[in-house]
Amino acid sequence: MNQLERAVEAALFAAEEPMSVDALAGFLGDAEKPDVRSALKALAETYQKRGIHLVERGKRWHFETAPDLAHLLRKEREQVRRLSRAATEVLAIIAYHEPVSRAEIESIRGVQTSGGTLDVLMEAGWVKIAGRREVPGRPTIYATTPEFLDHFGLTSRRDLPGIAELKATGLLDPVDDAYDDLMGEGEEEGPQEAPETEEDATDAA
Q1: Mind listing the pLDDT tens digit for each residue in 62-80?
Q2: Residue 133: partners with Cβ closer than 8 Å, 6 or more residues away
Q3: CA–CA distance, 127 with 56 (Å, rounded to integer)
Q4: Is 38 exposed, middle or buried (0-12, 13-18, 19+ CB in 10 A)?
Q5: Across 4-8, 91-95, 107-111, 152-156, least confident range
Q6: β strands within the chain, DSSP E
């Protein structure tokens, strides 16, 4: 292990939160980014067979417990977060189409989305407000967070399951057609019916 690898290891060990390559290079002073990336890869390989792993989540690096040992550190009393079907659908839509507004989410789902559903996802730390769409009304847009990637063990959004796989489960069907309509590929003139509410959909079922 060379001196830069030792320095990167020490910086990540002492860091209060995951660090990007840019942040590490800046923290270490005159370190070159390519050298930092090489050091990270070497360290990740070194820790691969140990009790803790060095992993990248959303372009940020941190140490975490090896997956096969995680059960040893769990508290006896666990709090399991269970999402409603509505929250699961909204989270999936945000993950695959971010940044996305509430109106766009409702258009894809075909039902109105309760503000409480988005609140639950933001309280969980998986969704954040990502700004406003530069259109009339400037609606708020939402995106996923690094915590979302970390919780589901994803390095980036490229690791998400394919749309075809999710459609096969019925979770997002028919997302593609709805999203094409939303983005103007299937625009029709004339007034459109307001989407039914989640409560209406439940009653109809």
Answers
A1: 998 888 887 776 654 444 4
A2: 99, 101, 139, 140, 141
A3: 19
A4: middle
A5: 152-156
A6: 52-57, 60-65, 100-101, 111-112, 127-132, 140-144, 196-197
What the chain holds in terms of domains, given with CATH numbers, is 3-67 (1.10.10.10), 85-184 (1.10.10.10)
Q: What's the rounded Cα separation, in Å, for the pair 65 and 8? A: 18
- Count CA within 13 A, CB hemisphere, residue 138: 4
d(CA 141, CA 136) in angstroms, rounded, equals 13
pLDDT per residue over 143-175, tens digit each?
999 888 887 778 787 777 765 655 555 544 444
